Amino acid sequence: MNDSSDTFDPAPPPGFTRLPVRSGYGLSIGPLFERETEDGGFIRGFRVGPHLTNTLNNCHGGMLMGFADVTFGHAISHRTRDNWITVRLLVDFIAGAPFGAWIEGTGHIVAADESFRTVQGRIWSGETVIATGTGVFKVLTPR
To answer: What is the pTM of this model?
Structure first.
């Protein structure tokens, strides 16, 4: 673990607001942030803190998977009140993200069949693509 935890600042770039996570898994991986895009979409983000790194001082793959899950799935609930659960999540890791890096991600629905949605997503830091993936999510009842 990085020994700079006492000087770590998770602050996001301008335009991002902190997600109101109050319990559960989100507390252990956060803080997470979000901003709206001009086209009506969204971008979620987080800063790689000391609690999110692996022994190489990069963002842990498990964190990237968790972030992909809550980011890609959010494409379903972003403009609806639908709840969803993850059926399948496939993520390809392309590059590492070092301690302190600002990470962003988004997802877009590419297919819908009855109560299932397929989402393609991307995670990046600056100009570097960190991961890409596809998720299949089952839509449940409205929130």
So the answer is: 0.91
